[in-house]
Design brief:
By secondary structure, the chain is of the alpha+beta class. It contains 16 helices and 16 strands. The protein has three domains: 286 residues, no CATH class; 112 residues, no CATH class; 59 residues, Arc Repressor Mutant, subunit A (Orthogonal Bundle), CATH 1.10.10. Strands 1, 2, 6, 7, 10, 11, 12, 13 and 14 form a nine-stranded mixed sheet that branches. The chain has a three-stranded antiparallel sheet with strand order 5-4-15, with no helix packed on it. A hairpin with a 4-residue loop joins strand 13 and strand 14. It is elongated, with a radius of gyration of 30 Å. The structure holds adenosine-5'-diphosphate and magnesium ion. The site of adenosine-5'-diphosphate (ADP) has 16 residues, from strand 2, strand 10 and strand 11.
């Protein structure tokens, strides 16, 4: 049994007791696929209402669902990316419910035999510790369409474009213990799926959204739960539905946990219910009391056969997985000698990490990372541009890195060249000479300049012998003499040598 350490940010003080946040997420991730889970209709976002609707999606009488095998493959890939068990046999069930935007009157989902079982995702906590979050399961299901209530004073409209798009529901164990941990977990899931290309992770377009389950538990009881694993020791949870903003998820958890503590300390009960978060008021409100599985009258979907996978097929997918963020980060630290911060920034998008790998190969990785983060990302941020609109090519970056690496250019010169290639293009190797920015590396020439500064300033030489801090003044003078082109490192070195001699 590992020792449980409870960190300060995981706790909340009530007036009678100190509590810990207990959070579990059900993440709905739209499968990246051209067509829907059981029909050939397009999944394209932003099409005119009701243009991506097949007869199956519209639930015309007699229509039968046909499984899209690519969506199965995507779910398996995701499971493997989350270090999870792949179930070689899984099955679809009908979840019966009145869905105004799912004309079948039931959702095809997986309750009893999901395609993916238990897995693990590693996150970093507020105190920079690695923490493993358990995955309970991933099941495949259909998304519902959208009801639109604000276009007309009396009528509601329905757009079935989203109806039937494949969703992966990724259910975590209640292992998250602070609002930040919940957000870090969601970010990590999103990043892994982006690298896997199984979900685009676009929360604004609703491709990734989460139901956030929150309860609070007095610390002593929580420790008891940790040693026994008895879920009944935990407090009653409320489920905050359909969140698609990281900021609001954090706010909602904070509000909800405090609301529950107040209830508990007043001697009231927390009711298990579904709630909605209202960002304008920063509060959660009860939507409905929570249904149990039996309320949905689940039963195996008679239209679909169980899904049977071959071990060798799963193995092939496993062997062909791309390099995922955790492994990539480790490799960057080792191979490119960048800092942990640099690595995290660079891997935060698959596009930026692949750009970094192209510019850093056979170059100094740390210099490449600095130029990428400080100059290129800095500039993109300032102009509010996505990485895709970056005008700088791999070759331009590689030339610039080479110049910096060989001390051919000062840091000011680097910025100047970067500015020019950003604005008008061009090759840094050509520009450095054209603009006279190449640093003098010739130590004879610099030595000569050092000699003359020393002989022209006997008073200063006396002073520097007492006060070595004056070296800066000498560097400045030598710089002037060499018209700012000498390598400051070399100047420093030569001055020190000279002082050693005199
Ligand atoms: P349902 O579909 O009824 O919401 P699921 O099993 O799909 O049930 O999901 C339950 C979610 O609630 C999981 O993410 C789980 O980790 C989380 N959860 C379970 N118990 C608690 C609890 N006491 N506090 C917070 N979260 C919890
Ligand atoms: Mg749920």
């Amino acid at each position: 049994m590992t020792k449980i350490e409870i960190e300060k940010h995981q706790t909340l003080k009530g007036s009678k007791d100190t509590y810990i946040f207990v959070i579990g997420l059900e993440v709905h991730a739209q499968v990246l696929s051209k067509s829907k889970l059981f029909s050939e209709a397009s999944t394209k976002f932003g099409s005119s209402p009701n243009t991506n609707v097949s007869l199956v999606d519209a639930a015309m009488p007699g229509m039968l669902p046909v499984v899209n095998s690519f969506c199965i493959e995507q779910a398996v890939k995701t499971g493997l990316g989350l270090n999870a068990k792949i179930n070689l046999r899984s099955r679809f069930d009908r979840k019966n419910y009145f869905y105004p935007d799912l004309p079948q009157g039931y959702q095809i989902s997986q309750l009893y035999e999901p395609i993916v079982g238990e897995g693990i995702v590693s996150i970093e906590t507020e105190s920079n510790k690695a923490k493993e979050i358990g995955i309970e399961r991933i099941h495949l299901e259909q998304d519902a369409g959208k009801s639109i209530h604000d276009m007309d004073p009396v009528c509601s409209f329905v757009d079935l474009n989203r109806t039937g798009i494949a969703l992966m529901e990724i259910v975590s164990k209640p292992d998250l213990n602070s609002p930040t941990e919940a957000v870090e977990y969601l970010k990590k899931l999103r990043l892994i799926m982006k690298y896997l290309k199984t979900c685009d992770g676009n929360m604004q377009e609703g491709s990734l959204r989460a139901d956030v389950n929150v309860s609070v538990c007095p610390i002593d009881t929580y420790l008891e739960f940790k040693s026994s694993g008895d879920l009944k020791l935990l407090g009653t949870r409320c489920e905050i539905k359909n969140m698609n903003s990281l900021k609001f998820i954090q706010q909602a958890i904070n509000y909800e946990a405090r609301r529950q503590i107040k209830l508990i300390e007043n001697g009231d009960k927390v009711n298990q219910e579904t709630r909605l978060y209202d960002p304008t008021k920063n509060e959660t409100r009860a939507l409905r009391s929570k249904e149990d599985a039996h309320d949905y009258r689940y039963f195996p979907c008679p239209d679909l056969q169980p899904i049977l996978l071959e071990e060798s097929w799963v193995t092939t997918i496993r062997e062909n997985l791309p390099e995922l963020p955790d492994r990539k980060k480790e490799r960057y630290l080792e191979e490119f000698k960048v800092t942990s911060y640099d690595a995290s920034v660079i891997i935060s998008e698959p596009t930026t990490s692949s750009f970094f790998e192209s510019i850093a190969i056979d170059r100094d990785g740390k210099i490449a990372a600095n130029l990428l983060i400080n100059e290129l990302f800095g500039r993109l941020n300032k102009k509010n541009l996505p990485f895709e609109e970056n005008p700088i090519t791999v070759n331009q970056m590689r030339e610039l890195i080479e110049l910096v690496q060989q001390n051919q250019i000062s840091s000011k010169g680097t910025k100047d060249i970067f500015e020019i290639i950003w604005e008008t293009g061009g090759s840094p190797l050509n520009l450095v000479d054209k603009l006279g920015l190449r640093q003098v590396q010739d130590s004879d020439a610099i030595s000569e300049a050092v000699e003359s500064v020393f002989s022209e300033n006997p008073e200063q030489v006396k002073k520097i012998e007492i006060n070595p801090k004056l070296v800066g003044w000498f560097v400045g003078q030598v710089m002037k003499k060499t018209e700012g082109k000498a390598d400051p490192k070399l100047i420093n070195q030569l001055i020190k040598e000279k002082l050693g001699k005199t």
